[in-house]
Specification:
CATH class of the largest domain: Alpha Beta
Order of helices and strands: HHEHEEHE
Number of domains: 2
Helix content: 40-55%
CATH topology of the largest domain: Alpha-Beta Plaits
Strand content: 25-35%
CATH architecture of the largest domain: 2-Layer Sandwich
CATH superfamily of the largest domain: ACT-like. Chain A, domain 2
Number of strands: 4
Number of helices: 4
Length: 130
């Protein structure tokens, strides 16, 4: 491994609080180690998605603010061919959860996930491969 580089970042107070909680809960030595672990986890998740092949069954969960229902509706309609079940649920704080049961080619599932992850109005997307 090459010599670590020192960088400076700006993050909101809430993110700093989360970082400190993660460090404590995971019993990591410092913020740098916590950030390295987070980078490794995100890189692994991205690599796993990139390596998907063939026909798949999967479950996608998406969290968004209620006012962005049209955003998710457009994505769902565009990818309706691979969506076998769609559950919409209202959460607290004017948020919504979408659960999509998917069946299709890896490339189609990746396209749907990419559409939700790159849309800044949608807060969080997770994918479980079955």
């Amino acid at each position: 491994m090459s010599k670590p580089k020192i960088i400076s970042i700006s993050i909101p107070e809430e993110a700093l609080s989360t970082l400190n909680s993660l460090q404590k809960n995971l019993r990591l030595k410092g913020r740098s180690e916590t950030i390295r672990e987070a980078i490794n986890a995100l890189e692994s998740k991205t690599r796993d998605l990139d390596n998907l092949k063939g026909d798949l069954n999967a479950i996608a969960t998406i969290i968004h603010k209620e006012k962005y229902n049209k955003e998710i509706s457009g994505i769902v309609h565009k990818h309706s061919k691979i969506i076998k079940t769609h559950i919409h649920n209202h959460l607290d704080n004017h948020k919504c959860a979408e659960v999509l049961v998917l069946k299709g080619k890896a490339s189609e599932i990746k396209a749907l996930i990419n559409a939700t992850q790159t849309n800044k109005k949608l807060e969080k997307t997770d994918l479980i491969i079955c």
